[in-house]
From TrEMBL:
Lineage: Eukaryota, Fungi, Dikarya, Basidiomycota, Agaricomycotina
Protein name: RGS domain-containing protein
Basic and acidic residues bias locations: 10-20
Gene3D superfamilies registered for this protein in UniProt: Regulator of G-protein Signalling 4, domain 2 (1.10.167.10)
PROSITE patterns associated with the record: RGS (PS50132)
Residues annotated as transmembrane: 305-329, 338-356, 391-412
Signal peptide: none
Native species: Suillus placidus
All copies of domain RGS, residue ranges: 32-90, 269-301
Length: 417
């Protein structure tokens, strides 16, 4: 009964340590993926950012492969707990890992010099607890409109003819991980349901067929060319030619028996690791800097900023029309022109908010938009300081423009036409 509170206290203490380490800097991509960060620069907000660009599949792929690797890691741990070695239980994989190295390291009983390291950006600072947190990140991304992917239930995926997946048949593909590749961003396709990464419950011991089923789902979801699989879940992600996988000869419904199939099955645990590393680097170098610029230096979504531009121009037109009417009708007393500060204030506020993609009123209330006109509380300390500083600057700029414009219209002498 006392273990649960102790574990909660330890997690809270760890969260506080992570938070203290970021008091004077923005979070890294690894910290966002491992859910060490808080809104508005957490994993949920990054997913929404990619979703607006129609590129969330690359993050779904990374999370699915992370889940697949955790499943393989759990299988190896179960084997070792049973008293058997990986060499005895799965000799083909042992030989493969001994020759080429393995990302699972000492879990499969390899010597340190035979461990295949992840890239520094992915490997650093992610422990088992954080990896488990990453694989369940989709639970926080459903937000009502998302369809959930069922647990470990085999999907009726019909394998396309071999010719379709062969290297000779290479249909048109996107040229960058973040190009739309024929898909429409969420901004113009609000009914598109996103998928949660596959979560496989451990109600029974993990078998090698479970590993094949996991790899098969990933291949047909993300690596098979769009349109070649009769499934609405098929959305191919971009990969450079050297990393593309054209065929998946194994089947989750038939246990491998031939020597060639057994040798092929030895590739399953590490099958997508190179592709996962490529996607990590692509997100880290392309989408993530834009995400930080969007959320650490602004608090509006593109749609909300566009609405402010339109409303600001309309209100500015109303204010100018009223100002010129007071001048050319020579309305007295002249002090009535000071009331022009009301439309000018709203107009300048909306226009500058659009320009900076930052609403100072929302910042002072501690809010940042997640989706158009829906807000959440800013909880990342350094981001809160950055936004507060920019909000003060925007407020000063708005006040200066409003005062200057109001005094200008007040100073112009009236002349009745």
């Amino acid at each position: 009964m006392t273990s649960s509170p102790t574990m909660d206290d330890e997690q809270n203490r760890q969260q506080e340590d992570w938070l203290n380490s970021r008091k004077n800097r923005l979070p890294s991509f690894t910290e966002v993926l491992s859910r060490r960060t808080r809104p508005p620069v957490d994993l949920f907000m990054f997913y929404l950012f990619l979703q607006r660009e129609g590129a969330e599949d690359i993050l779904d792929f990374w999370l699915d492969v992370q889940q697949h690797e955790n499943l393989c890691r759990a299988y190896f741990k179960d084997v070792r707990k049973s008293g058997r070695t990986i060499k005895e239980d799965w000799p083909q994989y042992w030989e493969y890992a001994r020759r080429r190295g393995s990302i699972y390291g000492t879990v499969v009983g390899l010597q340190p010099n035979a461990i295949k390291r992840s890239t520094a950006s992915t490997g650093e600072m992610i422990n088992d607890q954080e990896k488990n947190a990453i694989t369940h990140a989709a639970d926080e991304k459903r937000s009502g409109q998302r369809s959930t992917t069922p647990g470990y239930q085999k999907e009726p995926i019909s394998s396309p003819p071999t010719a379709v997946n062969s290297p000779e048949f290479d249909p048109p593909r996107s040229t960058t991980p973040f190009s739309l590749s024929g898909r429409t961003p969420t901004l113009f396709n609000l009914k598109r349901a996103s998928r949660a990464p596959t979560v496989i419950p451990r109600s029974a011991a993990i078998s090698r067929m479970d590993l094949i089923a996991s790899a098969e789902r990933i291949f047909f979801r993300y690596l098979s060319p769009a349109g070649t699989v009769n499934s609405p879940e098929n959305h191919e992600i971009y990969l450079p030619p050297a990393l593309r996988i054209h065929t998946f000869p194994l089947s989750s419904t038939q246990e491998p028996k031939s020597q060639s199939d057994l040798n092929m099955m030895a590739h399953i645990p590490d099958m997508f690791h190179a592709q996962k590393e490529y996607c990590f680097r692509a997100m880290e170098q392309d989408a993530f800097p834009r995400f930080l610029r969007s959320k650490a230096f602004g608090n509006l979504t593109p749609v909300s900023a566009l609405v402010r531009l339109v409303v600001g121009l309309i209100v500015l037109w109303i204010g100018l029309a009223a100002g010129f009417s007071l001048i050319f009708l020579d309305v007295q007393p002249k002090s009535k022109r000071f009331f022009l500060f009301i439309p000018f204030a709203f107009a300048i506020l909306f226009l500058i908010s659009h320009q900076y993609e930052l609403d100072p009123i929302l910042v002072f209330l501690g809010q940042s938009e997640s989706t158009p006109f829906r807000t959440l509380t800013i909880r990342e300390p350094y981001v809160k300081r950055l936004l507060l500083g920019r909000a003060i600057w925007v407020t000063t700029l708005v006040s200066t423009c409003v005062v200057a414009l109001t005094l200008l219209f007040w100073a112009v002498p009236g002349h009745r036409l």
